[in-house]
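Moderator note: this is an archived Q&A kept for reference. The question asked for a predicted structure of one protein chain; the sequence and the answer are reproduced below.
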Amino acid sequence: MLVIVGFIVVVASVLGGFALQGGHLAALFQPTELLIIGGAAIGAFFVANDRKAISATLNALPTLFHTSKYTKSLYMELMSLMFELLTKVRKEGLMTIESDVDGPFESPIFTKYPRILHDYHLLEFITDYLRLMISGNMDAFQIENLMDNEIETHNEDAEIPIHTIQQMAEAMPAFGIVAAVVGVVHTMGSVGLPPAELGILIASALVGTFLGILIAYGFIGPLASLLKRKHQESAKMYQCVKVTLLASLNGYSPALAVEFGRKVISASERPSFNELDKQVRLVKAK
């Protein structure tokens, strides 16, 4: 919603300012300039990226228009799940959660937390490392190194659409210049026309540069920044799980382990110590 509001503000500010200067809005409507800029940008996008990058970008674009799902309540749900699993491990041993890990959709623990259960990548991250803990063949340092490598791979994959969108934003001013040059060439080929008509042709050519810069910095560039922010939010979930599991492996109690996880959450979503303590007590009481 904020993306749409932002776009409206950009358009209203630019066109409103132009109109207040006495400009005629119809002069900015140049379909051929948009065809040159948009067509060249789309073509360059397909040339510069492979199928994986194109697919990742197209899948990422719809998420830009959704509000963030990484809220305090989601983190509370994640830490409640981790606390309940680690408490069961503490009381009954690692082998008792094997059925939960192998079949999370049938697990009486995982099914209490549907938002975590339906986040495929996060669920896989949790169950994979719990499975490694059950195997008992890896120490905390080995698991931490493996976690870091997987999170790094996750970050690299998430950055693919960010880079492709940013590259397109950087290219738009250049394509705007291309459209303007084409317009100037057309104008120079029409030097026999009256000055008034030549002025219209020159104005039309300059619209190409205007559109290229506006689209780059008013529309596409901000989308890349927003996508980067969304990726940073998603990465915090993995960091929270990592720190919690490592604290448990190092011998800390489930309550302290989830407290470790709480500390890596961004301040805007991080629950307070009292809020987490209250949630832990509620989980214990169930």
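Archived answer notes: The first helix runs from residue 2 to 20.
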